[in-house]
Every structure is written in structure tokens, then in C-alpha cells.
Amino acid sequence: VITFAGIITMGLEPVIGFAGAIAVAVAAGALVGLANGLLVAKAKINSFIVTLGTMTILQGSIYQLSGGNSISVATDQAFAISDFLSRNLVPLLTPRIVVTIVLLVAMEFVLRRTRAGRNFYIVGGSRATAWLAGIAADRYTVAAFVLSGLTAAIGGVISVLVSTAATLKLGENSLMYVISATIIGGTAMSGGKGGVLQSVVAILTLEM
User: Fold this and answer.
1) Hey, which residues does 71 pair with through a beta bridge?
2) The pLDDT value given to residue 206
3) Which residues contact 112 (CB under 8 A, 6 or more apart)?
4) What is the mean pLDDT of the segment spanning 156-161?
5) Of 11, 39, 143, 192, which sits most exposed with the smallest number of CB within 10 A?
6) CA–CA separation, 97 vs 70, rounded Å?
């Protein structure tokens, strides 16, 4: 999804501009998440199988959209956006880091301080318990996948805006890295335990 969103952004920019291309890329990421969520929640297919299959499909789509080549945009606007995203607002704090922090705080607040967040944990821990509590487990499962696709697309968009180019291996190295950081951060593979903040701490630890 990271690479897919990046290719869409750079590929569509000459046609509909950065604003339109970014909107389409983020929407595409959310739609991929929606498809995954529906397959898991409604078709009852194992989530690992679903996401592995989707990854294969997207890899083919990426090659079709890009023609097997990286896509770069060398315009004044592209360079201006890249410079802005990389410029320090204050020491060590750039706009792309601000976006990351905003997303982190928003997700952590929803998960820890709202009923919807608690319901996500219940559904992840035990669908039977969620059903007994009157929680629409399928709806929360789909929502989780949509959020995953949405945020992955945002990450891909920011990456290509900073580099002004989308490569075919943009998100390739992130797969095992993200899985490792999530597990190290205490997220249970069986569900019901974990958090965004812990995962971020794990990522920072791996970077040190």
C-alpha cells in the first residue's frame, strides 16, 4: 500500500496536480483496507492470507501503473513541497514529523480514551466476548483494516513527496521492520493487547 500510494501520487500529479493525486492515493489505500476488511469479516478468510494475496495483487498493479520504472516529478512545485516537508520548524521537528505526531496522538487517544477504541481491543481479544457485549465485531474489523490502509497510504504519500520520486521498492523494506516493531512493542498476535505508542517506541529503539 505504501508503494501503491506513492506510485499513484507521482503518476497522477501531471494529470490532476498534487492535491488531486494525494486525495486519490489516500482513498486508494483506504479502499484496499476496505477490501481486506470485508474479505476477513464477511468471507471469513484468514487475515494473513488476505493481506498476502492483496500484496501480490498490488505488486502487479504497481508494475502496470509504472511500466516497471520509477516515477519522478521534477517541477518547481515538487521541489518546494519536498523542501517544506524536510525543513526544520524547530530543531529536529519537520512538518512530516509533525504529521506523524498528530496521527500518533489521534490514534492513541481514540484507542485509550474512547468507547470505540475499547471496542477495538475487545473485538481483537475475543469476538465471542464482543458479540455478548453487543459490539458489531465485523464493523470494527473492517474499520481496523481501513485505518491500516489509510495510514499506510499517508506514509507512502509523504515518502514520495519528500524524495520527489516513487520507486518500485518504496515499501519493500518496511514489511518485516513494521512487523518486528509491532511485536517488540507488545502487540499480541492473537489480538486484544498492544498500542500505537508502544510500537513507535519499538521503532525508535530499532533505529538507535
Assistant:
1) 166
2) 85
3) 195
4) 96
5) 192
6) 25
Name the grid cell of 52: 498476502
Cβ(171)–Cβ(89) below 8 Å: no
Angstrom CA distances, 40 to 46, 100, 145, 206, stand at: 6, 28, 9, 31
Question: From CA 52, how far away is CA 184, in angstroms rounded?
Answer: 22
Q: What is the DSSP letter of 165?
A: E
- pTM, two decimals, is 0.91
The full length of the chain comes to: 208
* CB atoms closer than 10 angstroms to residue 67: 9
Give the three-class secondary structure for 111. helix
CA dist., res. 206 & res. 123, Å (int): 29
Give the residue among 93, 95, 73, 100 at the shortest CA–CA distance from 83.
95
Cβ neighbour number for residue 178 with a 10 Å cutoff: 17
Backbone angles phi, psi at 72, to 5 degrees: -125, 155
For residue 3, which of 164, 173, 156 has the smallest C-alpha distance? 156
Predicted local confidence at residue 92, as pLDDT: 83
Kindly tell me the burial class for residue 204, based on how many C-beta atoms sit within 10 Å of its own C-beta (0-12, 13-18, 19 or more): exposed
Please write down the HEC assignment for all residues of 76-97. Answer: HHHHHHHHHHHCCCECCECHHH
CA-nearest of 207, 50, 55 to 142 is: 50
